[in-house]
Design a protein that fits this description.
heterodimer; A: mainly alpha; about 0% strand; elongated; B: about 450 residues; two-stranded antiparallel ribbon
């Protein structure tokens, strides 16, 4: 799920649950999640991004 | 110096020699609580009658020749997140109203067996989810030197109790810095041991893969004594204050120094100069993924906390303080794939911290980027930027909860207003005692009372 869709759904759900104050926190979380997903340790199914894999991890 | 303000290591021989009684020092601590707690709000529960009974029993045992060790008859406080049999573990929340612990947490049982006297359960940030101690069902705790400021958190009441002579030491928990932050803010030594060296059973969890139990106290020696008891070992004490010459420390630059109060930076630089003059080898190091620490931490702590609280949030949401409830709700939206990414990030960061420690005795960095913050503010100005209080207070401590490396804060000066500043030493995984030896050797130079 993209972060944009995730955030849209999360905010809508929070409003449905009568928690509109969550919007600001969810926006903060979305920025943090973007940073997390951009980190260079994340795997890629093509196998091209293995720089931070521990040598004996397999 | 009044007895209640001495270190455990200095009072223990007097107790053993029967020059002073446990009853006398317990009464002194209870008197401090009676005098100061109404304004500082350090305690949620004061156990005056129980403490007096324990102290009398300790004196009887010592008089009869049964000496349990250096904690025998010493008054301690406990963060109200740890189970103490027969008392309420409130976690500073109305959610836990009426809960009575049926047994001591294993860490508490070890203290009891060592003869400690429990004077009470201390205030904290509700469920340990915060760094200011403001969000508590029992009201905010106040800094002992300036009541308009926070003592830090989440173990804020614990820090106040030790700083003011209400207890000789306190046992707290640390999931992102909750022992080290209030210890630094209140001028104490605070130890977060290596992950899983001290049992966390019987402790209300925040984030089970990052929760640690440890002491807030007045010296590195006291931290070593309490750590030994908490981990179930015989208190061995540290080597005599060794020469600091030849100790090798690395300062992680970059991220860790990018947002730092000027007075904190100056005090830290002066401490480094004293260490170098004493023969400590200090060089710079780099944690390559340091800028990812906050994202990794946030996705682990919130997801794990949300899992613990989900059921209660459905049924008793209104009984949480609003800020804590909202942060817990936030965690319920974290996707499994992002939690997994954070766990992978943890492994990367753990390897990087361990790599920097190779060939060195420890890392050295400030404990808290800013002095104690004002109560009621959501941001502080640092380096020309307004930073959220939560982010800036966690900034220098949370990495070692993510990676599990042991870390201890030691006082290293004060601001012109007299607010304490702390320096943090970080050791090798699973080697907390070695870290404490390093802290013992460097303590007087960090404090600026030698060298």
């Amino acid at each position: 799920m993209t972060i944009k869709i995730w955030l849209h759904n999360a905010v809508r759900d929070a409003e449905r649950r009568n928690l509109p104050q969550l919007r600001v926190l969810l926006e903060t979380l979305a920025r943090s999640t973007s940073a997390l997903r951009a980190a260079d340790w994340n795997e890629d199914a093509t196998g091209e991004f293995e720089a931070n894999r521990e040598p004996d991890a397999r | 110096m009044h007895a209640e303000n001495r270190t455990i290591q200095s009072i223990a021989p007097a107790l053993q020699a029967r020059e002073i009684t446990s009853e006398a020092i317990t009464e002194a601590c209870l008197a401090e609580i009676a005098a100061k707690n109404p304004t500082l709000n350090a305690f949620i529960t004061v156990l005056a009658d129980d403490a007096r009974a324990q102290a009398r029993e300790s004196d009887r045992e010592m008089n009869a020749g049964r000496y349990r060790g250096p904690l025998h008859g010493v008054p301690l406080s406990l963060k109200d997140l740890l189970d103490l049999r027969g008392t309420t573990t409130t976690a500073a929340s109305r959610v836990r109203e009426g809960h009575i612990a049926q047994a001591d947490a294993p860490a508490v049982a070890r203290l009891r067996e060592a003869g400690a006297v429990f004077v009470g359960k201390c205030n904290l940030h509700e469920f340990a989810l915060g760094t200011t101690n403001e969000d508590s069902a029992f009201g905010a705790a106040h800094h002992p030197l300036d009541a308009s400021r926070s003592p830090g958190g989440s173990s804020g009441g614990s820090a106040i109790s030790v700083a003011t002579g209400m207890a000789f030491a306190s046992i707290g928990t640390d999931t992102g810095g909750s022992i080290r932050i209030p210890s630094a803010a209140c001028g104490l030594v605070g130890l977060k041991p290596s992950l899983r060296e001290v049992p966390t059973g019987g402790v209300v969890p925040l984030s089970p893969t990052m929760d640690h139990v440890g002491p807030l106290c007045r010296s590195v020696d006291d931290a070593a004594l309490l750590f030994d008891v908490l981990r179930g070992a015989q208190p061995g004490g540290l080597r005599p204050a060794s020469d600091a010459r030849g100790v090798r420390l690395a300062i992680p630059r970059g991220y860790f120094f990018a947002l730092l109060d000027q007075q904190v930076a100056s005090s830290f630089d002066l401490a480094c100069e004293r260490l170098r003059n004493a023969g400590v080898i200090v060089d710079d190091a780099d944690i390559p993924h340091a800028s990812d620490i906050a994202a990794v931490y946030l996705h682990i702590v919130l997801a794990e906390a949300a899992a613990y609280h989900a059921k209660t949030l459905e049924s008793r949401a209104d009984e949480y303080t609003q800020p804590v409830r909202l942060r817990l709700e936030m965690g319920r939206y974290i996707l499994a794939e992002d939690y997994i990414r954070a766990l992978r990030g943890r492994e990367v960061l753990r390897r990087e911290v361990s790599a920097v420690l190779e060939g060195r005795d420890g890392l050295l960095l400030p404990s808290l980027a800013v002095p104690a913050t004002k109560l009621g503010v959501s941001a502080v100005r640092v380096g020309g930027l307004d930073e959220p209080v939560r982010n800036i207070t966690l900034r220098l401590t949370q990495l070692f909860n993510v990676t599990g490396h042991p870390a201890v804060t030691v006082p290293c000066g004060a601001t012109v207003e007299g607010l304490p500043i702390g320096a943090q030493l970080v050791g090798h995984l699973g080697r907390t005692t070695e870290l404490l030896h390093v802290a013992r050797a460097t303590e007087r130079y960090l404090r600026g009372i030698g060298g």
